Amino acid sequence: MSPTGPTQQIPVVVLAGFLGSGKTTLLNHLLRASRGTRIGAIVNDFGSIEIDAMTVAGQLGDSTLSLGNGCLCCAVDASELDVYLEKLTRPSARLDVVVIEASGLAEPQELVRMVLASENPRVVYGGLVEVVDAAEYEATREKHPEIDRHLAVADLVVLNKTDRVSRAGLDRLRASLGGAASVVESVYGRVDPELFFDRRPSTERVGQLAFEDLLDDEEEHGHGEACGSECGHAAHLHTAYESVAFTSAAPMDPRRLMAFLDSRPEGLYRIKGFVDFGAADPRNRYGVHAVGRFLRFYPEPWPPGEERLTQLVLIGSGTDADGLHKSLEAAVAGPGDIQDEPAMWGVLRYVQQADEDAPGADD
Ligand SMILES: Nc1nc2c(ncn2[C@@H]2O[C@H](COP(=O)(O)OP(=O)(O)OP(=O)(O)O)[C@@H](O)[C@H]2O)c(=O)[nH]1
């Protein structure tokens, strides 16, 4: 049989992990470092602006599909996911592996179940990888003890952002992760791609769970395929979170945006997107990421022809969506704002220095 023949099975790997743990960074590393392995990606964003999909390397060619707004585990049913899997696993797509990047609030168990439920004969479940933010994990687990449940079903745990934690802290964390899955440490998601692609696909055993356990669980929760608002998902992590999307065609004022970011409310855990600072830096757009109290800007030249927009997604729990929106509107530059170089100093404090360890540095 030819390796690209119609019955070739394509492993589908689920990449999960809490908000901001480094899933997109890791996926980008895999895409850059795959050396000949052709990877398809399905990206699921929690916010209505698809920041993750925009940031995946190579952008939205035929082999990257975006599942859009909402958690994959609830927003789509198995048959909808199948449409995407069908596109990526058809022989003409010539892909070797498909990675599904779940939103940071998705329930991995649901995703695994959906892949297993696929009726596409070319799809074979390729394992669950959970990315853990080494710097934030203890605080996250304190707030959401149920997150241990996510790790319990993982085949591989990537303990990421180890640059932000001491060796002693990492050892403590590793011990508390228990002996369940294999744990690999990483900085900026730089793991050996072989860990993803050479895993033996399995339909019998799913991480620490048997397939039967997943089926039992399904009966218990009473949701099989489609998942509406009344299907008992109160226990899902994302029910406690909401996202706010903000778009502005007018540039942001750097000083006022920094005042907003420096005083952002505790519950606002995640911010991501791109900022246009207009005349204060006409050449660059600023990628922005906040994860907990961590904040970074990533300036990069505006792609030619790109519409100059500020697009932000804010994800938090117990936050005031209207208030956040109003604060951001108040940070849009007005006619009286002076957009000179010093205006950018507050932003530049949060730009990664060239000698810091950076994503893609050794890919
Ligand atoms: N210091 C440090 N920062 C990292 C590392 N990996 C990722 N980051 C940063 O963490 C932030 C979030 O990374 P993403 O890859 O967007 O995280 P994500 O899990 O895809 O985020 P969501 O999709 O919102 O859940 C970005 O600013 C990354 O550059 C790392 O190993 N060390």
How would you describe what is shown here?
Helices cover 28% and strands 24% of the residues. It has 363 residues and is α/β, with parallel strands linked by helices. The protein has two domains: 10-237, Rossmann fold; 241-348, CobW-like, C-terminal domain (Hypothetical Protein Yjia, Chain: A,domain 2). The strands form three sheets. A seven-stranded parallel sheet has the order 3-2-4-1-5-6-7, with helices on both faces. A five-stranded antiparallel sheet has the order 10-14-11-12-13, covered by helices on one side. The longest helix has 12 residues, at 78-89. 42% of the residues are buried. The model is unreliable at 1-5 and 199-232 (pLDDT under 50). The structure holds guanosine-5'-triphosphate. Guanosine-5'-triphosphate binds at residues 17, 19-25, 52, 104, 160-161, 163-164, 187-189, 270, 272, 289, 291, 296, 359.
Total count of domains: 2
Write down how many β-strands occur, each being a DSSP E stretch of 2 or more residues. 14
CATH-scheme architecture of the largest domain: 3-Layer(aba) Sandwich
In round numbers, the mean pLDDT is 80
What is the CATH class name of the largest domain? Alpha Beta
Percent range of helical residues:
25-40%
InterPro entries: CobW-likC_sf, CobW-like_C, CobW/HypB/UreG_nucleotide-bd, P-loop_NTPase, Zinc-reg_GTPase_activator
Protein name: CobW family GTP-binding protein
Domain CobW C-terminal: 241-332
Family: Belongs to the SIMIBI class G3E GTPase family. ZNG1 subfamily.
